[in-house]
Specification:
single chain; alpha/beta; 9 helices; 42% helix; binds NADP nicotinamide-adenine-dinucleotide phosphate
Length: 286
């Protein structure tokens, strides 16, 4: 029997890049895999590829633009209807924009998509994860978290926006969310981990109209990981018995690593949690 047989995994952003490669890896291990994407036709094409490459027909498609809280809520409802159990949630979707713009909820896009969407989706799926325990929440952060700072006075970059600062902040928020989630879920059998996938050759930042990352990508491309390599730590954290019960940790290259010093400040993580809960109108977790 394959190691993930009988397990159900939901991966946000499974239509390309790291998410799609992780979906192939986990489906090949026998899991039923749900992927999300914004466009049904693109997501269904990706599902067909994942099925073919993993030799597993158990791939489901969920359609939502996760920058909209209403769409996060409706996709969570669909997932709850479709999956009586959920063993792993991979919060993978993330992006970079060098210009400030807002979501349908009037929130700065980077913060809303990279941090508030996984925060809200996880909270909406948490009871299902808890009732499926042991279960895992794996959140794709970035090495950029190490340069991040949570600017509580200007979280949405209204006074002063920089794409890099907004991205760094959102990726630090992924790590802080993970640590606080792990603390709140201590006795539930649901673990929470975050990771840096490494510089990976994907479509990352391609939606930034200014293409601000393009010169960096051009220079770095020969040294970048393939999507399969970028997905290795995701697949490891989602499936390996070696990390059964491991929670509240940040990984890179399948190894636990120290994260930004501020991520270990319980007062800051608790404050970010409260601000996030207020911004998404989610109930308290744990
Ligand atoms: N690539 C790297 O070098 C690197 C390095 C460090 C960290 N990361 C992190 O890794 C994660 C995955 O990045 P990637 O490189 O694989 O990116 P990618 O190639 O751009 O893939 C992004 C995925 O997210 C989906 N997506 C984008 N915007 C969305 C939205 N508003 N609502 C719903 N889905 C949306 C896309 O689906 P559709 O377009 O089909 O909707 C696609 O499946 C991100 O969190 C990123 O911050 C990447």
């Amino acid at each position: 029997m394959k190691p993930m047989t009988g397990k159900t995994v939901l991966i946000t952003g499974g239509t390309g890049g790291i998410g799609k490669a992780a979906a192939i890896g986990l489906a090949a291990m026998g899991a039923r895999v749900g992927i999300t994407g914004r466009d049904r036709a693109r997501a269904e094409r990706a599902a067909k590829d994942i099925e073919a490459e993993s030799n597993n027909p158990a791939v489901d498609v969920f359609v939502a633009d996760l920058s909209s809280q209403a769409e996060v809520r409706s996709v969570a409802d669909e997932v709850l209807s479709a999956y009586p159990r959920l063993d792993v949630l991979v919060n993978n979707v993330g992006g970079f924009w060098s210009h400030r713009h807002t979501t349908p909820d009037g929130l700065e896009h980077t913060f809303a998509l990279n941090h508030l969407a996984p925060f809200l989706l996880t909270s909406l799926l948490l009871e299902r994860l808890t009732s499926s325990a042991p279960a895992r929440v794996v959140t794709v952060s970035s090495g950029a978290q190490s340069m991040g700072k949570i600017d509580f006075d200007d979280l949405m970059g209204e006074q002063d926006y920089s794409g890099q600062r907004a991205y760094n902040q959102s990726k630090l928020a992924n790590v802080m969310f993970t640590y606080e989630l792990a603390r709140r879920l201590e006795t539930t059998g649901v673990t929470a981990t975050a990771l840096h996938p490494g510089m990976t050759n994907t479509s990352f930042s391609a939606e930034d109209p200014a293409r601000a990352m393009a010169p960096v990508v051009f220079v770095a491309r020969p040294f970048m990981r393939s999507p399969k390599e970028g997905a290795e730590t995701v697949v490891f954290l989602a499936s390996s018995p070696a990390v059964e019960g491991v929670t509240g940790k940040y990984f890179a290259n399948r190894k636990a690593k120290k994260s930004n010093i501020s991520s270990y400040d319980g007062e800051v993580t608790a404050r970010l949690w409260q601000v996030s809960a207020d911004l998404v109108g989610a109930g308290d977790i744990g």
